[in-house]
Write a structure and sequence with these properties.
Number of domains: 1
Largest sheet: 2 strands, antiparallel
Number of helices: 3
Distance between the termini: 27 Å
Order of helices and strands: EEHHH
Helix content: 25-40%
Shape: elongated
Radius of gyration: 17 Å
Structural class: alpha+beta
Number of strands: 2
Strand content: 5-15%
């Protein structure tokens, strides 16, 4: 993932904005997810890979939660995974992130 910090200058300094832009080539991850959907999962339910989520999408989800006022959430915590990630993966919009059928 690549992150850039940009300054959008305005005529008055107080109207200028700092913009943070994150980008990532997600194609290899999505291609692997698609390939894994065609293969049988091995192991128990607790050991199987359910989804491989690109970092740029996790950051997007975190930003959306912050915009909702959930500023206590942190990436890669149990709370984030159990609330945000679980909810998003149940949404058909994000189905393509799944590695299982």
């Amino acid at each position: 993932m690549r992150t850039e910090i940009l300054l959008e200058r305005a005529p008055r300094a107080r109207d200028s904005r700092i913009v943070i832009v994150s980008t990532q080539d997600v194609e290899p991850i999505l291609t692997r997810n698609k390939a894994l959907r065609g293969e049988p999962q091995r192991g128990h339910d607790c050991a199987r890979l359910v989804a491989d989520i690109p970092a740029v999408i996790l950051v997007r989800w975190l930003n959306e939660e912050y915009a909702r006022g959930n500023t206590h959430l942190r990436l890669f915590t149990r709370e984030f995974n159990e609330t945000v990630v679980r909810r998003k993966l149940q949404d058909p919009e994000w189905r393509y992130l799944h590695t299982d059928k």
